[in-house]
Each structure stands twice: as structure tokens, then as C-alpha cells.
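Handout, page 2. Input:
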Amino acid sequence: MFDAFDPIILARIQFAFTVSFHFIFPAFSIGLASYLMVLEGLWLRTGKQLYLDLFKFWIKIFAIAFAMGVVSGIVMSYQFGTNWAVFSDKAGPVIGPLMAYEVLTAFFLEAGFLGVMLFGMNKVGRKLHFAATCMVAVGTFISAFWILSVNSWMQTPVGYAINEAGQFVPAAPWWDIVFNPSFPYRLIHTVTAAYLTTALVVGAVGAWHLLKDKADPHARKMFSMAMWMAALVAPVQIFVGDQHGLNTLEHQPQKVMAMEGHYHSHPEGAPLILLGLPNAKEKRVDYAVEIPKLGSLILKHDPNAPLAGLDTIPDTDEPPVWIVFWSFRIMVGIGLLMLGLGLWSLIARWRGKLYEWPLLHRVAILMGPSGFVAVIAGWVTTEVGRQPFTVYNLLRTVDSASPLAAPAVGASLVAFVLVYFAVFGFGTWYILKLMQKGAQPHEPEITDDAPIRAAGITPGPAQKGELPDGR
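Output:
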């Protein structure tokens, strides 16, 4: 069945499919862990039951998303050995320790405190439980830190030497490798995207329940917090994305050439191509809608600055322009829509209509999944734009694969598709059902003596919290 297919193409599709599924859940759980930390902190500071209700509502969703993120990521580590053994052998001395640091720091931190966070509110003091929530939030950030360091090194490799076996080995202090040229930009851009993704989901849930009941206090609080996040962070994300683009132009110019659709060099100022159909055969963008010299103004801050095109590099080093061109525009377009939603919410808030405009709420619902689309589009831009290399300009993708048989790779790809859509489709459906139900108001506040009362024992003074630790 798969004999006619290129096994390397099948292996790339398989990894792209699994990592796309996986990326969705951490992008949500990174932001949601921090949101839970904020909710619990506000509850402890103000004593308002509303924040506790929201915390208990969103922690159920976090537990499911976190579990699906862990499970969906397991198979990727196996693919390094089954499908990309040559890459693992050659790049392993550099990326292997970085991935091990992720396990030793982030994963152990999350695993150590996740149980306390999920099940310990009735069993430990409030301060300890809040500390556990903070540690889980910090752990999700540390996990992103190491994984993005690995990916960034593959994009902008530094601090390496190549030994007699053809392996990349460290030749500089590890921090030079960790903080490679593109890493700080990619880290901030990706984590900020995760926060925006979560904010839009929270805002969509709040908007959904506001359409049913404008007076719902839980829906009001969710929607208000989410819209503040969109209004304040979306402009920051656009600025960070611009800085990341300038860094990419410096270190990966052909990726930017593909993003911009610049098949030819522009010695006197490059246009900004808004839309068009890249034509790889004719080396042009058909039906281009462009603004003269704006490309040079954005990328060089000078409308007359020259910009090189893909005609300056060999065709064999050229990324797939059509995919990168459109994935980049999807990402940027959604980012501008997020900015628009945030500004709209500020106008509504200023006019005292934040909870009164159904059209704003409907648009917020439509924007709910847009963060996931944007992070996948950004990932496609980053990864496909690096092609035809796994380690940029040093190790080609065709030279990174295991000796593969197309039927074996194709069969496993089909199995992944069926299992992933079945398992994670059900998990996503269940999360949507929980979101549809919403936060339950007036749930009894959990106190430190709840287990004692549940056992039929009336707590004495010491049991009521008069302990030296302040509980």
C-alpha cells in the first residue's frame, strides 16, 4: 500500500502529526497552570469564594489537558530512535543532555507537586497547597525552557565541534549552547503565545456563559480576566514576534525569504507581499497583493534597504515556500485578530458594556480555538522554514533518517492517526463538556479541618488552625 511513497516523507509526516497533537496540550497547560496559580493566590489574598470556585473548575480541565500532553509526547521520543536514528547519533551529544535536563528539572518538579496540587487541598495547609500550584506552574515553564533550547540549537547551532565519527559534540561552555542566538526570542515568543492561547480559551468559556446569563459572576470574572490578558499581552506578542523575525533574518535568512515570498532580490527596497500564490516553478508569487518597500521598512527599518532573495541560495537549500508563506500569514493574521479583540474589549470596558455586548461575546467564542491554530502555524513556519535541514545548514533531513521501509512507516502513521483521534478526540470532547457546564457557584469552601469534620470529630482549638505554622 505504501510501497510507492518516500519513507522519509512518511517519517516527516508522522513526526509532524504527533508533535502537532502534542504541542496543542502543553500550549494550553503552560498558560493554564499560571492561571490556576493566579486564581489560588487571589483566593488566599481576598478570601472570595468566587476565585476558589474558578480554581476548582479549571483544575479539572488542567488535569485532563496535562495528562494528554504527557501521553501524546511519549511516542516522539521513540521516533528519534525508530525513524531518526542517524540524527540522534550525530546530534545526541549536544541535544541529549539538554533533554535530560528537562526531565531532571521540569518533569521531576511537576511530578513531585502535581499530586499535591490536584488532590491535596483537603490534606495540606493552604500555604503548602499554593506552593505546590506555584511549583507546577514553574515546572511547565522550565519544561518549555529546555525543549525550546533544544529546538533553537537545531535552528541556530553554536558551541559545537564535529568529531571523527561525524557527531556534534560540545566545544564551548554549556550555557553558550543553551542560550544560542535564537533561543531567548523563541522562548519569550512561545511562552507568550501559550498565555494568549489560554486567555482566549478562558475568555470563550466566559463569553459562552455570559450569553446565557449576563449576571453570572463566574462568567464575568473569567471574561474580564481573559480580556485584560488579550488587551495587554497581544501587543507585547506582536513586538516580540517582530524582534524574533529580525533575529531570524540575521541567522536564517532563507527562512525569512520564504516567509516573505521573496524569490528575487530587491536591491532598492523590498515590498511587503500581503497575499499571493507562491509559484515555485516560475520563481514568483502569482496574483501578489503587495505594498512597495514596506518589507524593507519592517525588516531593515529603512524603506530603501536592499533585501536578498532566494535567487542568492542554491535551489537545493530552498525551503518549501508555499507552506512557509501561508503558515506565516495565518499566524500573523490571527495575532492581529487577537489584538483587535483586546482593543474591542477595552472599548467595551471603558463604556461599561463589557458584559452587555453579545456580538463581542460571540466573537470571543469564535476566537477561542484561534490560539491553537496560531501556535501550530508558528511551529510549521519555524520547522518547515528550516528545511531541508534538521540542524540548520549542517545536517540535511535526508541524511538524518533511519534506514526506513515505507510500508512500516506508513502502517505506524495510520495507527497513530486512528489512536490519536480516538483517544485525544474523546479527551477534548470531555473538556468541552466540562467547559459547557461551567463553574459551580457557592461550593463550600475547603478548610484545613474538613477531613476532621468529615470523620465526625469536632475540632478543638489546635485543630481549628491555632498552630505555629499559621494554618
